[in-house]
Write a structure and sequence with these properties.
Strand order of the largest sheet: 7-6-3-4-5-11
Radius of gyration: 21 Å
Strand content: 25-35%
Shape: elongated
Helix content: 25-40%
CATH architecture of the largest domain: 3-Layer(bab) Sandwich
CATH superfamily of the largest domain: Hsp33 domain
Bound molecules: zinc ion
Number of helices: 10
Structural class: alpha+beta
Distance between the termini: 55 Å
Length: 289
């Protein structure tokens, strides 16, 4: 199944549903960042959460960053997404693993910390920052708690990522009641999402998200709307790293230029390396006072 995000209405238009398949995107993140199996599963859930939340952004140029920092073995995990379906991610400890064979997302993520969401301000002012204390470290419940406490947007959420029959599968569902949604519809949605323990099997089995939505929600009335393609995309460039070096200031640049023959900078979102030799650094410093 292609990596996509599906927008749909359920319960005869009483709630908005987003469904995501992120399997290929997470595979790409795993290979670019060298993630361990456990960190892959945690990052997969966070990628889904970030990509789903970014669908609520108004403009394609607005970026949304989701950071989970629970003091677990994986350290801080970060995902940046926009509403065109581009996501990128990074982890403090990409290779973190637990001593036992069992992969536990809460143990890797930890729950002593916060889930933070940073949104670009379209007016170019200070970004909007929302924050919520972690409730479980499993990312799914933390994300749902964030939506209620920080965005006043209750939602039934299911996120999962795991290797099933040697295949990495990752996806999620988020259902948000619309104004006027009845209590009966709310109950139905909760029951549906709580019973979604075969989410990964469904993603593996169906040809498209639309087909999966119709199959899983036919009995509560479902209307698929548009789909958005999802992909891992890092927008780093030599020019951006030049700007970052310039922001260090003249003295720092010159000391780098004299200390090292080559200064290598590695992008933390895609591991691409950019090398600046001492002459290039001196040239950058020339323009600065
Ligand atoms: Zn990059």
């Amino acid at each position: 199944m292609k990596d996509q995000i599906l927008h749909a209405l359920v319960c005869d238009g009483q709630a908005a549903m987003l469904m995501i398949n992120a399997s290929e995107t997470v595979k790409e993140a795993k290979s670019l960042l060298g993630l361990s199996a456990g960190v892959t599963n945690a990052m997969g859930r966070l990628i889904c959460a970030g990509a789903l939340l970014a669908q609520r952004n108004k403009n394609e140029s607005e970026k949304l960053t989701l950071i989970i920092n629970g003091q677990g073995a994986a350290g801080k995990l970060l995902v940046t997404a926009d509403n065109s379906g581009c996501v990128k991610a990074c982890a403090d400890e990409p290779k973190a693993a637990l001593p036992s064979e069992e992969i536990s997302i809460p143990a890797l993520v930890g729950k002593n910390g916060q889930l933070t969401v940073v949104r670009d301000n379209p007016l170019g002012k200070e970004p909007y920052v929302g924050m919520c204390n972690l409730v479980s470290g499993d990312i799914t419940r933390d994300f749902a708690a964030y939506l209620v406490t920080s965005e006043q947007q209750p939602a039934a959420v299911a996120l999962d990522c795991d290797t099933v029959n040697d295949k990495l599968i990752c996806g999620g569902i988020m259902v948000m009641p619309l104004p006027g949604c009845s209590n009966e519809a709310l109950d139905l949605i909760d029951k549906k999402i709580s019973a979604m323990n075969d989410l990964l099997a469904k993603l593996d089995y169906h040809l498209s998200l639309e087909e999966m939505a119709l199959d899983s929600f036919w009995d509560v009335g479902v209307k698929p709307l548009e789909t958005v393609d999802l992909r891992y995309y890092c927008d780093c460039s030599r020019d951006r790293f030049e700007q970052a070096l310039i922001s260090l200031g003249r003295e720092e640049l010159l000391s780098l230029a004299y200390e090292e023959e080559d200064t290598e900078i590695c992008c933390r979102f895609c591991n691409k390396k950019y090398v600046f030799d001492s002459e290039q650094l001196k040239n950058l410093a020339k323009g600065l006072k």
